[in-house]
Amino acid sequence: MSKANVRRQLVLLEKNKVPKEKSTTTAFSPIFSYKHLKRIYPIGLHKSSSSSSLSLSSLSLSLSENSIDSSSIIDSASPLEQKISSALRLIAPPQRRESPGPKVVQQQSPTFQDTDNGELRRSNWITKNSDKVYVAFHDECWGVPVFDDNQLFELLALSGMLMDHNWTEIVKRRELFREAFSGFDPNIVAKMGEEEIEEIASNKALMLPDCKVRCIVDNAKCILKIVRECGSFSSYMWGSVNHKPVISRFRYPRNVPLRSPKAEAMSKDLIKRGFRYVGPVIVYSFMQAAGLTIDHLVDCYRYNECVSLAERPWRHI
Fold first, then answer.
1. What is the mean pLDDT of residues 259-288?
2. Could you identify which of 131, 251, 278, 280 might form a hypothetical disulfide with 270, taking C-beta atoms 3.0 to 4.6 angstroms apart as the criterion?
3. What Å distances lie between residue 119 and 20, 122, 139, CA to CA?
4. What pLDDT score does 124 carry?
């Protein structure tokens, strides 16, 4: 073969190589066809079944667990491959970082235990020297809403005895009082005659003077009049507080009053109706014992219990 022919063939080969090199160095454009992209960089592109546009999820590289790190692949990849990978990162949806939510501070329920001896925390007027009977009266009766006529009559009579005795002395003889006054049934007490009154007054265990016994009998007669007028003694008493206990929030014993405006109004009305030993202080003590007002201190364990009872939808007869 002559030298001229060899030169012609070399020139033709160089001309054929130039377009291939240009095609390989062509910048990646959005009109680059799917066949060319698949032939150059097989990423596994496929069309979405719902639309003709390419699915973004299909553009992600499927790498196995044992594959080489993507950073090392990019370093060893050609300039075209680097452009494709950077384009894929731009197309992929950004990962949202979940911002930490607000810290939920759990409020600790108030503890009603005394740290010294582990006993339940009660109102300050209950001390270590308090009688067990008085403590039981505080824990079980005092401040609990009462709606029975006989029980209300009993508590009103016991509150009237506070002029001469304290709650401890009264509660200790409570069963004796119930036996003497027939369970404080106003229908029975109102019919007591002179002999029964003198018998109760002469009982040294009761420690009741004659005037106090007659006062209880007279008050029973007044209760019967209220029952005929209002339907029940309970309806009359609870009507004075709009059929809902008065809930106080006292922290210290010095905050607890001896009387209240409602007690004064109730006392005036009771006196007009013929009741005796029903001054504002006695009436307020009656309201505290019968649960018409909740005067347990807020740190007493009985406070929340009595408040929950007070907020119940009671049916008044």
1. 96
2. 278
3. 94, 9, 13
4. 74
Amino acid at 150: N
Is residue 292 within 8 Å of 246, Cβ to Cβ? yes
Residue from 177, 182, 172 nearest 136 by CA? 172
Q: What region, left, alpha or beta, does residue 133 occupy, with left being phi > 0 and alpha being psi -120 to 50 degrees?
A: alpha
Mean pLDDT of 298-302: 88
The DSSP code for 213 is H
**Exposure b/e, 98-112, CB count within 10 A at least 16 = b:** eeeeeeeeeeeeeeb
> DSSP alpha helices (H): ranges in 97-209?
132-140, 149-160, 167-172, 174-180, 186-189, 194-201
Task: Find out whether 237 and 292 touch, Cβ atoms under 8 Å.
Answer: yes
- In this structure, the chain runs to a length of 317
pLDDT tier, 74 (very low <50, low <70, confident <90, very high otherwise): very low
Question: Residue 108: enclosing H or E segment and its boundaries?
Answer: none
**Confidence (pLDDT) at 83:** 72
Residue among 291, 273, 278, 155 nearest 221 (CA): 273
In 3D space, the residue among 146, 164, 163, 79 whose CA is nearest the CA of residue 289 turns out to be 146
| Amino acid of residue 145 | P
Considering only CA atoms, which of 202, 168, 196 is closest in space to residue 181? 196
pLDDT in tens, 188-221: 999 999 999 999 999 999 999 999 999 999 999 9
SS3 helix, strand, coil % of the chain, rounded to 5? 55, 5, 45
pLDDT above 90 (res 293): yes
User: Is residue 181 exposed (0-12), middle (13-18) or buried (19+ Cβ within 10 Å)?
Assistant: buried
Q: Give yes or no for a contact between 201 and 208, defined as CB atoms under 8 angstroms apart.
A: yes
**Residue 148 structure tokens:** 């029975």
Averaged pLDDT for residues 19-34? 44
The CA distance from 239 to 272, in Å, is 17
Mean of the per-residue pLDDT values for the chain? Answer: 76
